[in-house]
Design a protein that fits this description.
Strand content: 5-15%
Largest sheet: 5 strands, mixed
Strand order of the largest sheet: 2-1-5-3-4
Number of domains: 4
Distance between the termini: 53 Å
Radius of gyration: 25 Å
Helix content: 25-40%
């Protein structure tokens, strides 16, 4: 049902249930906001979007006030302007005055609001009592001295991710956003996904910065420093330099990394292809045990394991599903283990002098690389992780003119990859990559696809399902003849929860489930450029599919570098060396979340 109202003398027609804020956007009226973020429930707490509504006793927050037929709204009256300005001034009075040294300087929403409103001085004294900064986790830093109580982090943690780590504590002037019992983040039930850091408007939550340790490694002449880049980076890094979301900057990214001084620029896509080989064979082995051997102990469905935030969630909320998780390490960790063994030997580099740096869209990757079990090479397999945002700052710090760089190619052998590896960045991408390979291994034929992709697993629907029936199977896989494999794809931990409940309660019988911790998959990771709305996610997803579609090879098992590494080093999928270097185990952390 349509509603007609007037905003600043302009007639607006919008659907019933639309907020005043969104109705104003329809006619080009920009009402300032701070606690509001598209796609995340707004608490209407910051009072920066106050407007006058005819007949209302007080001003109303436009982000949560729904339109009514005949409503008359005024957004630019002196009363509204003064009220909004006062709200921002009071936040500034309760906020540290260290903008030049803040990690968010130049991209702070509070700073921008103050500038837009013409606030050049703070009329009120700073009276806030300082609290210690929480640096307890490898992934995130919480500086509650800078918190403006907008509650965005609470909304994304509780409503989008369903983890519920953060919540308002105390009341009134004593209110603080914190963990359940006020403990440090490392001791709380936190998956370190970083969605709170991605949505925070100020410098209250941000990633642990690894730029200086990486500079130190690059400056050390005794170290051989290699870098791997996750597939999601190439569709988002350009945003750090003013490009439109979804601009592919793969070649410029490689050129920038070389100019930063890395000895080799490799690609996590290489080990994503490797993951498909190992994970695909693991799935087929489980199916054989269940269907042929009658092994009732085999755990199905098998869940993917490449998202560390999802692994953290599973260990803390669903440890009973540990045996259902693929034992494959993530592509990041597979790469690190092989860099310090296979590559080190080929390059004639002592592994103790080899530094592996990852560029990831994810803050949880910082935690993953320091897990106790991630040292099968004999050393810490991955030494440092930089987020996309950190890489953007790193390049700027070095004075590199990113947009005018030439396009360059990754180094071999660990820089060669297929289009199947590219789509690991998107929700549904790991599933599609696995299906492309598994179907061809089982039938000897290419997967018939709707267009260029497996359509049912694409898109931003929270929980997607698909079926695939095997026919005319080759000799080794005749046991799958006529079998219909049922798969599911979940992104965002609230949807992962739904998938886990369907499995644990026996309401759905799947064979294989892809789970990505972050909404949209890695393209929406907690370390990506800020401002990631669904519109931005769709543009990045489209760019990744475009990258895949332009590849001469689009299936993991036809990558010659993967064939080479098995022939020269790993011998066979799921073999002894693969098991040692590329597979892992998990921990029940339900009772000890900070362990």
């Amino acid at each position: 049902m349509a509603v007609t109202l007037t905003i600043d003398r302009q007639t607006v027609n919008v659907p019933e249930g639309t907020t005043v804020l969104d109705a104003a956007k329809e006619v080009g009226i920009k009402i300032p906001t701070l606690c509001y973020f598209p796609g995340v429930a707004s608490p209407g707490s910051c009072r920066v979007c106050l407007v006058e509504i005819e007949g209302a006793r007080t001003m109303q927050p436009s982000c949560v006030t729904e339109v009514r037929d005949g409503m008359v709204v005024r957004t630019t009256t002196k009363t509204a302007r003064d009220a909004r300005r006062l709200s921002v001034e009071l936040m500034l009075a309760n906020h540290p005055w260290d903008c030049n040294a803040c990690v968010r300087n130049g991209e702070c929403e509070l700073q921008t609001l103050a500038q837009d409103m013409g606030i050049t001085e703070v009329r009120f004294p700073y009276t806030r009592e300082e609290v210690p900064i929480d640096r307890s986790t490898p992934a995130l830093v919480r500086d509650m001295n800078k918190c403006i109580l907008c509650r965005r982090c609470v909304a994304v943690c509780q409503d989008v991710q369903g983890v519920g780590t953060l919540a308002p504590r105390a009341r009134g002037f004593d209110t603080i956003i914190g963990t359940g019992s006020g403990e440090e983040l490392a001791d709380a039930v936190c998956v370190q996904c970083g969605q709170c850091a991605a949505i925070c408007p100020v410098g209250a939550i941000y990633e642990q910065d690894a730029i200086q340790p990486v500079w130190a490694a690059l400056d050390d002449p005794t170290k051989h420093v290699v870098v791997q880049t996750a597939p999601a980076i190439r569709a988002a890094l350009g945003e750090c330099f003013g490009c439109e979301p979804g601009t592919l900057v793969t070649g410029k990214m490689v050129a920038a990394l070389r100019r930063l001084g890395f000895d080799k620029v490799f690609d996590t896509n290489f080990s994503a292809d490797l993951t498909i080989i190992e994970e695909g064979h693991e799935l087929l082995t489980r199916l054989k045990k269940a269907l042929v051997d009658g092994d009732t102990d085999v755990k199905l469905p098998m869940f993917t394991s490449c998202s560390p935030g999802w692994i953290n969630y599973m260990e803390q909320f669903y440890p009973q599903l540990m045996d259902n998780i693929s034992t494959c390490k993530s592509p990041q960790q597979m790469f690190g283990a092989l860099a310090k063994t296979y590559y080190a030997k080929k390059a004639g580099v002592d592994p103790k002098d080899l530094i592996v740096v990852s560029i990831m869209p994810c803050t949880a990757k910082k935690y993953e690389c320091v897990r106790d079990e991630m040292n099968d090479s004999g050393y810490q397999d991955v030494d440092y992780v930089l987020t996309t945002r950190e890489l953007g700052r790193f390049i700027k710090e070095a004075g590199i003119d990113f947009l005018n760089l030439p396009d360059e190619e990754q180094d071999t052998p660990m820089g060669m990859s297929s289009g199947a590896a590219d789509i690991f960045a998107n929700t549904g991408g790991v599933m599609e990559a696995a299906i492309r390979t598994v179907y061809e291994v089982v039938t000897g034929r290419e997967l018939p696809m709707d267009g260029l992709h497996v359509a049912p697993v694409q898109g931003l629907e929270g929980l997607k399902e698909a079926e695939l029936t095997f026919t005319d199977c080759v000799d080794d896989w005749k046991f799958l003849e006529g079998v219909t494999a049922k798969v599911a794809v979940a992104h965002g931990l609230s949807n992962a929860h739904k998938a886990c409940e369907l499995v644990t309660t026996g309401q759905a019988e799947y064979h294989f489930i892809e789970v990505m911790c972050c909404p949209g998959g890695c393209i929406g990771g907690g370390g990506q450029p800020r401002g990631t709305t669904d519109e931005v996610r769709k543009k990045r997803i489209s760019a990744i599919y475009k990258e895949d579609e332009g590849r001469p090879m689009r299936k993991s098992h036809v990558n010659p570098a993967i064939t080479q590494i098995y022939e020269e080093f790993l011998i066979k999928p799921l073999g002894e060396k693969s098991h040692h270097l590329l597979h892992t185990h998990y921990q029940d952390r339900k009772e000890q979340p900070g362990s």
